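Expect chain and fold; see below:
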Amino acid sequence: MSFSKPNYSAATLTTTRVTPAPVSGICVTCIDGCEGPCEIGRSALKGREVIYPVPFGKITAGSEKDYPIDFSHFNIQGTAVGAVGIEADSDKARFPAVDTTTTVAADNSIKMNFPVFTGAVGSTDISRINWDEVAVGAAISGVLVVIGENVCGMDPQAEFKNGKVTKSPEMDRRVNAFKKWYDGTGGIVVQANVEDYRLGVPEYVREKLGIDIFELKWGQGAKDIGGEVKLRSIERALQLNERGYIVLPDPTTASAQNAFKAGGITEFERHSRLGMVKEDTFYKTVEHLRSLGFKYVTLKTGAYRPADLARAIKFSSEAKIDMLTIDGAGGGTGMSPWRMMNEWGIPTVQIECLTHQMCKRLAAKGSYVPPIAIAGGLSLEDHIFKAIALGAPFVKAICLGRAIFTAAMVGKTHGKLMADKMEMEGEDIENGYIRLFAVGAQLKERFGKDFNKIPAGAIGMYSYIDRLKQGLQQFMAGARKFALKHIDRNDLTALTREAADVSGISYVMDADREEVDKILG
C-alpha cells in the first residue's frame, strides 16, 4: 500500500493518461506520442517551474499524503459522571459555561479568547492580498496573528540604508491594520528568518512600530528549506537579488534575461537562506531581542528530526521562551515545493507525542517548560480538542494556517458578491452583511457605526472561530471538562493498537480497565 500519490495532483495541475503504477506514479503503459500531462511530462517542458503548486499567489496548498496515523485514529472520551471546573449541577454545568480562553507567555500574560492563532502570514501574494481580512479577524476575535518572514525584504517600496531597512510601507500597513481593531486580547507577532535579521527587521518593528512579540523561525511543517516565492518580472528579480536574496535563475546573467524575454521561462524564484542553529547563538539572539525591548520572544520550528525537536524544547526551556510552536508534516502553506510538502518530516501526531515525552522529562526535573502550540493540518474543533489533550498539560494553543485563510477568503468572496448586490438594489451594505453572516447582528451590536468598516473576510474568520468555540464547548462539556486546563490525555482513546503504541493513549478495549474492574467487583 502506498501512502503517496506521485506524479499527478490537482496542486500541480497534472494528471495521468491511464491508471498509474502505485509506487512510481507513472502510467502503467507510458506511450510514445503522449503529450505528457503528468508531472514528468510537464517537467520535460517547464522543468523547475513544476516543483511548486499553482497558480502561485492565488492558492494555499496542503499535503495530500495519507499518513498511517492521524487525529482520526483517536476518539474523544465522554462521561455521564460529574464535572471538572464547575459544580456538578445540571443547571450550572451547561455547555455554554465552558471556558475556552487560554494564556501563553512565561508569565501567562498573553490572553486569548480562544486557543487558536494564525499561521505566519508572510510575503506571498495571497498573504499580502488577504492580510486585512486575517489581521482584523484576529483582532476582533481576540487571538494572535503572525506576520511572517520576508515582508520588509519583499516590500517594493521599502527603503534601506547601509543594508538595514529604514522604511517599509507594507510592514507599517500590516501592523496598523491590526492595531486599529486591537482591544488588548490576543496580539500581533512578527517573525524573522536569516534575511530579516540581516536587514534589521527586529530593530525596525520594535523602534518604529512598537511590536511587543517577536518570533524566531527555525522552520515549518511544509518544508525544511527557507521560504520562497515566484517573481513575474525581471525588474523584481533584479531588485530582490540586489537586496541579498537567492534568486533563480540568476537574473543578472544574459542567458536568464534572454530566456525570460523569449518566454522559455516565465518566472524567477526568490529563496531564503537556511538557518544554522547553534545553542550559544540562540541564547545570544534571545538576549539581543529582549535588549531591544521586546516583552515576549517566541520560537517556531518545523517537522525536523527528533534530535532537533529536543534542541527546540531544551533551548526554549533554558531561554524562558514565551511560546514554542511545533509544526508537523501534513499541513500546508502559501508556497512550498509540492513533493517536499508531502514527503519530508515527522507527521503532526507523532511529533506531538515526541513533544509530550520530552516536555514530561524536563518537567520531571523541575525545568521550565514553555507553552506549546501545535500546528500541521488542523482545522476543526475535534482537532483542537485532540491536539490539546494529546500534549496535555503542555499544549496551550493551536496554530491554524490554511483553515483560517479559507474562512477569511470565503467571507471576502461572499462579501463582495453581497456588496455588488446591495449596490444594484440601492441598499446599505450593513444590512447585507447582517443578512449574509450569522454573526453579523452580533458584531453590529458590538461595533455600532464601525461595523461596516470591518472587512467581510474578517467577519468570515470571526464566524468560523465562533463556530469552533461552540463546537469545542460541546466536546468539552461531553467530557465534563469546563476549562481548557482540565483537558488531559485520559480524555482520548486510541482506536488502533498502532495509535496506542505511538501515543501511549489507552487502546479503546483497554481504557478504564481498572475502574471497570472496581465497578464490577
Notes: Residues 52-225+276-429+459-504 form a domain with the TIM Barrel fold (CATH 3.20.20.70).
